[in-house]
Amino acid sequence: MTSSGAHGSRASDCSIGPIWSRLAIFESGGNCQAIASASSMSGAAVPVPPSVLRPGALACDMMYGPAAQGFVDWAAAHGAAARDGLGMLVEQAAEAFLVWRGVRPPSAQVLAELRAM
What we know:
The protein has helices spanning 66-77, 86-101, 107-116; strands spanning 10-12, 23-28, 31-37, 53-61, 81-83. It is of the alpha/beta class.
């Protein structure tokens, strides 16, 4: 499987075994640059060892709020720059609003307000 959006990286399992659709790990030069979780962990342990993360790696969970917290906490505890999916959701909505209405809403302000709730 290849990924054109990962700066020429290829999607792989970083030699940790099959991961199916739970996590997509992008590998470059033998070190994982990014891990993306696309499903709620629901309190379960993260199904990959922390050794797949290199210092400063990007770890994104497409979920947001409490559903993402376990993965985000795990990634941050192991030195990754951890993010949930709320920013992506807001930016996608802003782009759609621009297409529909011809006006781009202030997505940074919207994201800050949502985070403050």
